[in-house]
């Protein structure tokens, strides 16, 4: 086998997205196979490395974390320099973190200024898909003594009539006998 084809590729990957979306957690999960429920703003190191194979090629991923500085959008040029891929992360439960993706995308391209910005490799991760909003709401409702729950869309008119039918029904149980 040719020596050059076995050479390990060193790839710099940077992870961007709003504070709290789970960037550090994703790196810890991937590299150390663990997860911490407690909020830890930083892992202390500038980057972690992970060795893997892509097809038959040996690869070292050097994954850079923001150490919490993303809150100030001041990550410095060393952070961005020489990136081979940018991983964007948002929290699927937080609309705002999706909306700011465009800022992160633009900021990355501004800082790195790649020769061909249209084809620079990005990967988007929608994190925290384990959180079940409906389950949380149902549990909350049952903890408050079986409050009725409807998932609605005012825009698409989903379950709006049903919801207010239920409102009328439970209101009727109170039955204050207002004079009309
Ligand atoms: P970062 O600021 O983007 O680095 O976010 P962190 O990795 O510090 O995570 C912020 C909080 O979200 C922490 O409390 C994590 O435990 C939590 N978290 C991260 N990823 C997940 C996930 O996939 N599911 C859930 N339920 N919580 C997560
Ligand atoms: Mg972090």
TrEMBL record:
InterPro entries: P-loop_NTPase, Small_GTP-bd, Small_GTPase. One of its GO terms (molecular function) is GTPase activity. SUPFAM superfamilies: P-loop containing nucleoside triphosphate hydrolases. Keywords: GTP-binding, Lipoprotein, Membrane, Methylation, Nucleotide-binding, Prenylation, Protein transport, Transport. GO terms for biological process: protein transport. One of its GO terms (cellular component) is vacuolar membrane. Protein transport. Probably involved in vesicular traffic. Belongs to the small GTPase superfamily. Rab family. This is Ras-related protein Rab7. It comes from Linum tenue.
């Amino acid at each position: 086998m040719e020596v050059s084809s076995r050479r390990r590729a060193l790839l710099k990957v940077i992870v961007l997205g709003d504070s709290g979306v789970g960037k550090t957690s994703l790196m810890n999960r991937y590299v150390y196979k663990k997860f911490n429920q407690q909020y830890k703003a930083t892992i202390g190191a500038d980057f972690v490395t992970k060795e893997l194979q892509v097809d038959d090629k040996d690869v070292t991923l050097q994954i850079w974390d923001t150490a919490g500085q993303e809150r100030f959008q001041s990550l410095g040029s060393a952070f961005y320099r020489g990136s081979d891929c940018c991983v964007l992360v948002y929290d699927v439960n937080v609309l705002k973190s999706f909306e700011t993706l465009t800022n992160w995308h633009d900021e990355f391209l501004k800082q790195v200024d790649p020769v061909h910005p249209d084809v620079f490799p990005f990967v988007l991760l929608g994190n925290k898909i384990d959180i079940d909003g409906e389950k949380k709401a149902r549990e909350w409702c049952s903890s408050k003594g079986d409050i009725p729950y409807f998932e609605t869309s005012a825009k698409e008119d989903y379950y709006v009539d049903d919801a207010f039918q239920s409102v009328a029904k439970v209101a009727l149980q109170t039955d204050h006998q207002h004079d009309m």
